[in-house]
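This section describes the prediction task in plain terms. A model, or a person checking by hand, is given the sequence of a single protein chain and must write out its three-dimensional structure as a string of tokens. No templates, partner chains or ligands are provided. The sample shown here is typical of the held-out split.
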Amino acid sequence: MIFMGTPELARVNLEGLLACRDFETLAVVTQPDRPKGRELKLTPSPVKELAIKTNLPVLQPERARNESFIAELRNLKLDLIVVAAFGQILPQTILALSKFGCINVHT
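The expected answer:
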């Protein structure tokens, strides 16, 4: 499984999945670090911070449609994709990579 998400809401969902031992999280996909605050310091997303803390690989494509990113996902041999507030519309090419499809969590 891979998890795709960016803000705090998504981090909470990722925490829940990591607590469940029925799934192996192969990687986390989140938006690239963005400038924040007065000093415009590059800041990782809450999902990236949790991924780093739990030693998960992090992918940060500028655009989910980039062929190099899709190739990375293809190499993971995905069973499932879970998405919560990722911030980009996923192309059918990505949705078709997963054996069991994609679950998109909405609030």
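For orientation: The helical segments are 8-19, 46-53, 67-75, 92-95.
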